[in-house]
Each structure stands twice: as structure tokens, then as C-alpha cells.
Design brief:
The protein is α+β, with helices and mostly antiparallel strands and about 90 residues long. The chain has one domain. Strands 1-2-3-4 form a 4-stranded antiparallel sheet, covered by helices on one side.
Length: about 90
């Protein structure tokens, strides 16, 4: 199985081409995170063999937790603290 960063980057490329649940051609990571983060997180989660967890927060953001790190469309390398995901919003 590819690592999660590769899975996220491949999923981003699919979404940019308009392939994916609720994807639109040209979608950028920022656009995904501000409207379709739930669908994107689900797409990534489904590609993981095991061990991933879907998370959401009161800010309305969805992401994947995998091996202790938090991942979304704008953070394919993951961050240690979930609040880093939306810190610049």
C-alpha cells in the first residue's frame, strides 16, 4: 500500500481532474478544504487499508488521523496538532 502522503497527493490529482465524490475539475486543496473536506477525507479514508480515523471539529472541518498525525487536502505531509489544519483560516 502506498503511504498516506502518496494517497493524498494522488487523490488531490484525481479531484483536480474532477474525479471523486463531489469533485469539480480544477479543484485546489484550499477549495476542497473550504466546502468538500468531508468528501475528500472520506475518499482518502477509503483508500487506507486500515488504521485511519475520520475526524471533525466544531469549526466544521473533516480530516483523517493516521498513525498519530492529522491530514487534509492542504496538509498531505500531516501535522502533529489538529488545530494546525485550520490555523490560517
Amino acid at each position: 500500500m502506498p503511504d498516506i502522503t502518496t494517497i493524498i497527493k494522488d487523490t488531490l490529482a484525481e479531484w483536480h481532474r474532477g474525479v471523486g465524490l463531489n469533485a469539480s475539475p480544477g479543484d485546489t486543496p484550499k477549495q476542497i478544504n473550504h466546502g468538500n473536506c468531508d468528501s475528500f477525507a472520506w475518499d482518502v479514508y477509503e483508500k487506507l487499508d486500515a488504521g485511519g480515523v475520520l475526524e471533525n471539529h466544531v469549526v466544521g472541518h473533516f480530516w483523517v488521523v493516521y498513525e498519530g498525525k492529522h491530514y487534509d487536502a492542504e496538509h498531505p505531509l500531516g501535522v502533529s496538532d489538529a488545530e494546525e489544519l485550520w490555523a490560517g483560516w
